[in-house]
Hints:
This protein is an alpha+beta fold. It is built from 6 helices and 26 strands. The strands form 4 sheets. It has a 9-stranded antiparallel sheet. Strands 6-2-3-4-17-16-15-10 form an 8-stranded antiparallel sheet. Strands 5-1-7-8-9 form a 5-stranded antiparallel sheet. The longest helix has 18 residues, at about 200-220.
Amino acid sequence: MQLTINRELFLKAINLIAKAADKRHNMVILGNIRLEVTEEMLVLTASDLEVELKATLKLPAGACTEPGSLTLPAMKLKDICKLLPAQATLQLATQDNERCLLTSGKSRFTLGTLPAKDYPTLGSPEHITPLPISRHKLSDLMHKTLFAMAIQDVRYYLTGMLFELEQRQLTTVATDGHRLALAKTVVDTAEEVGMQAILPRKAVIELDRLTTELAKLLSEQDNMLTLSFGREILQVNLPFGDVDSTGQISDSLVVTFTARLIDGKFPDYRRVIPRGSDKLALFNREKLTDVLRRVSILSNEKSRSVVFSFAPDGMVEVRANNAEQDEARETIQVKYQGEAIELSFNAAYLQDVLDVVEGDVQLHMSQSNASVLVNQLGDELHQYVIMPMRI
């Protein structure tokens, strides 16, 4: 294999996919990036057998003088390219002793390789349910809910995000058993098309990262993506080529995101959402955020408990204490309907919600030990449920 390529172009493709590589995996080769070169294109692949990212890069004429394939250490390759001078030209050439020589100017690097034929792939989804959606809508669905996914849980289906399509409405749901986040949007599909799929935590984070990078590239422009849901796999192509004056993006660089879905049954989230709450509090988001951050400084380090005492006149006392007998109290005026009630929240759970909403925040409550529904005033597309703590 012999390839000559611009450093910026090569590094851009590597940066988009390198996080999928896993050097701690039992299969050593998954710490590498697979390179496949033809006269027309370069295909870079990184995978941990849960998430696979493939960057397909169109090559200019003469860039490839000898087609071939190999795998190279992902982080070493990325770090070398990152520290080379801007606009440098790189040459990659395989050697007889299973080594790859990378040269640029007066710099020479010899890297060990592993055979490309041994690199495992996830394949393509079967029995596809195609789901066209704008990049902006997809980003919103994930960004507004991913914080509620469980990190480690024996209930493995909670360590991912539910994607549910029903009657042209796509809903994403994440929960760790203590809180739940839900977002929904309308999509352009046939009304009878429906499906449920659970995307693993790492896959959600990677897809969210890629859509965020795409947003930076397109600035204010939106673009359409197609999520291809199969029985076991989700796949989506994201264009990262050049953007013209009309906001259209070329296919000179395309990242194919492939992820293995979680095989499990997600709990019925509809049963978790509180109904018939008889107490309603309306907070200014910025004021509540400031109060919560100040008071939680003296909360218990493990439980992070902060107590809210609601009075019928709309005065709310927010307080916290810890094992060292430290105590914080602050009072805030809100619009409140209902009788007096006292609840304790994990401050981090409530702060996570405040970080993703934008306007005034409503708390729908019924009893001190019953779950609380939180949403932004006038926004029915995003809902959050937090279980209070024992006082």
